[in-house]
Design brief:
59% of the residues lie in helices and 5% in strands. With 458 residues, it is mainly α. The protein has three domains: 108 residues, no CATH class; 171 residues, no CATH class; 93 residues, no CATH class. About 4% of the residues have low confidence.
Length: 458
Amino acid sequence: MSEKRKSAVFSAYSLLCEGMFYMNFQDEMKKMFLRVTDGGVEPAEWEQWWNEHKSQLEEALTRGDLNRIMPAFWSSSYYSMTKTQSGVAYYFHAQGRPVKTSDYYEKKAEEEEAQRQREAMEKFQERTAPERFRWERYLEEHPAGVVEFDWKHLLGTPPGQKAALVFSYKKTRTEEQWKETREELQLRLKENMQAKIARLAKAYGMKKSGPKTFVKEKNGLVCVLKFIGYFRGGGYEAMPYYICPIYALDTGILGLPGHISQGEYFQRMQRDWGVIQYGTTAVDADEVEKINRKFDEILTFLADGIFPEWQKIDSLEAYFAKERQDYLKATETGPVNIRTGRPMWDLDERGQKHPWRADDYLFGVWGLLSGREEEGYGKLVECVEYGADYMERCLKERPDAYNDLRDPMAVLYYNAGLFAQTRQIADRKERRAEILKVYEDVCGFMRYYHGLAKRTGR
């Protein structure tokens, strides 16, 4: 046999071997992919196999398949394996061979994420421990009443809840269907509101100030919880809640620790809020159960976080205590969310004043009440001067704007002006008496503002 002939035979043999090798790898790859769809490959095993066959995989797969099966920033975790499994499923689907996938990785990823989030929260608690201990010591020295109420028995289906209706549609199409669905939604909201939220609020001494608003006044403080109706009708768009001095506005300043107001219970409650907001889906048995569960989450958020924390703050002194302010500051930024890489919450204003200068009003009045007049007047004057242009324009158009609940900025600047004017009184005793008189007058109007009293003017 000639050398040329030998070379041709050898080349053909080599190509045959390469083809067989390629086919063998294709079989191995698909078998491995099928194990992934079944949830039978652990992250470490998958990573090792992929790295050992990386060059062959790059030849066997398209760039799109490579990026779907091993996306950028892949790590040896169950969360990354859910992405890999999804990419593998897409690969088989594109081959005309759809496969079923196990939920093993998804469940393990949830467990993995929950564990890492718990660890992150533990580090957050360690980081904020010094401030928390000082606030707890303050509370021990200034004890407040404790509310004993077994709220957990309120969870679940409201007692006497009417049986769910059967609808011939799922999504509303006509005006008549929308009206029927809205009425059924509002009934289910009312059942849960009365059975869960109203009973909890009553246990904490709150009274109704409307069918969806609960308020309480104690020692110069006000607690407010209300449900805002969706502007198109139907359910509840939002649930504002706040604690502040009666003379102040609900601006969020000196609210509650971040992990209570914005933590796990809050985030769970916020998810799928639309189930109690929109009236576009037939409120059948499944929807009724979703509404019941959503109110369970709202109840848990309030009963295991907000209300007990409010209960600790039983005076203006406690509200403004430095220990409390330091604790709130320490908890403004939460631990990093494992999935997003961003803080779970971030309430830090980075030293910025409130855009209305409501912080100057809040602390200015407290400065006057607590005898630090120079400091108090300084803040109040800054607030009044900042809002002067707004008040001038506002009062030209609406001379009575400072009595209008729909214009909280006018209310704020008018109140600040009343307190600031007392600075002109030279005699200290007379000035003190006038400060207290203005305080009572302002609180009288603000009780109406917060829903504690009926309409009043000034």
